[in-house]
Amino acid sequence: MKNILFFTGRELTVEEMQEPIPDLHHFAVQPGVSDEPKCQRCGNETNFSSHPCARCGKECLYCRNCIKMGKISSCTTLYRWTGPEPDVPKAAGILHWSGTLSPGQKTASDNVLQAIQQQKEHTVWAVAGAGKTEVLFAGIATALSEGRRVCIAAPRSDVVRELAPRLQNVFPNTPPAALYGGSPDRHTYSPLVISTTHQLFRYTAAFDVMIVDEVDAFPYTFDHSLQYAVQKARKTESALIYLTATPEPSWREDIQSGKRDATLIPARYHRQPLPVPSMKWCGNWKKSIVPPAVLEWVKTKEKALLFYPHIETMEKALATLKAIDSRIESVHAADPLRKEKVAAMRRGEVPVLLTTTILERGVTFPGVDVAVVGAEDRVFTESALVQIAGRAGRSADCPTGEILFFHYGKTTAMVQSIEQINEMNKLGRQKGLLDT
Amino acid sequence: MNRCLLCENGTEVDSWRAFFGAKAPPLCEVCTASFNRLSGPCCHVCSRSLEEDGECTDCQSWRKSIFHSNVSLFHYNEAMQDVIAQFKYRGDYVLASIFAEKIRTEAKKAACDLICPVPLAPSRLAERRFNQSEALIVCAGLTAAPLLGRHESEKQSKKSRAERMNAVQTFYPTGEATGKSVLVIDDIYTTGATMRLVADALADAGAASVKSITIARSGS
Question: Are strands B209-217 and B181-189 parallel, antiparallel or unpaired?
Fold first, then answer.
């Protein structure tokens, strides 16, 4: 029955239930806000407001934290399916992939598989461009073959949209359900779910394997309710896999001290070292906007990303740089043409793309050079700079690339990001994962 | 620290002002700046922006009504659309407090005998859990006089401009307002059709004149 599939693992308000609602005896109910108060969907315990409610006739508390996903009030009832789970077909886990894993990937893949089989926690710390998605294939295949349900949670919807077709290709028998705000898949059932962390709020004890991609990325690290969502959506007995290229310092400590079970892939799949950034003093760039050194750099480039710390300085710089080459563009998070400009950059139509940290991760432009203007600004944390450097030299055809930090005073973040990259290259060599 | 109702930023007042009882504003400076206060020449009936002060063609063409005038506070720009959508459709009641002070000031200027909310049809009220017009009045510390009821009908916001201008009456009087001036407070003024239907129903309740205050003025 189609409805049962939809309800499995979900916990929903009556507005989210699709008609006709199947056998109500198979639903457990609870109030949307508990007495403490605590929102039973997102776990919020501090951000509430209230008003006289026309439905229940009382002064009714509502959660402001997850209100963008539909309002949860004291008089809201949450419905959770308690009937039988659907069978996952045996063929669900058949893997259609002919690629080979690098030795670094192979180790990580084996450890992920083992963690999934033993329902344990495991972290994969893989440098940008290591090929961390492929590391998941064997584990997901095994889980699906054994009739278990798998979720990959990512912090941003563009990552979900990028991952879904890749997994669809390798698991053609199990088209994944891609969930993000406004997604066309939101009413479909699949044993393989790829979701933004926000959409996980609608699940309870649903997944046997929970994989959290880019665990260090905004907003996951800052938003405790998203961590709550991850814990709520997985079953008590389940595996939890974390993926990251730049773990936070506290995670790194836990990994190095052995408190956190982890696999490190310090080298890229193409066996070339990570390009190392260099630093160049450029004077007060806030005044000059495009310092002479930056201008000279831009003039020589055919394919480059130029990071600015703020939209305002970036837009001023664009005006100056457009005079050199009118094809130069800029992009930021709220830019309505963001997708189009990134696509034009991919097609090679934009020689230099100015950007905020929005393009620090998740994007690949083969053969790109990278510079940061105002690298000392506090938005450029150690992780941000490592991620930015990770844009260069990703493809096997162009494994090198230039990375330049233009600055008006060195910061610890800049120095440590370069140290981190050097350290990874050293480890890669020690482990025999690099050719040079 | 107090948090902005729309983002993660803090909102603080200088400590010396807090000492004299000043409250932290509901929004941070960035969010406050994203709203665009209506100013400059406008239609003295409906607040529409014009080249010079006067009466716009729409208002000239409306049939005779006890409707006197509308004052809108803000342009219906993107930030305002977002905040009204979160308030009205998402049901974030507390956002009414963003406008409380300005509504109170304008209501004082309008100096009417009674303040009446725009009613919702029963099914819509149950769906939304509260009446946004009443919420704006109550949060401004004013007293709402429920003088009207509303029959079930289609959503106004789903209708075209022509459909709105010729909308049929769905409001009916439930209270007594003989000889009174009535102030109506609502979220958006678009064509003025809703306000004139409200005014007609208030005329049936005996009202002598009707003014309105709306958060945003939409339409060109």
Answer: parallel
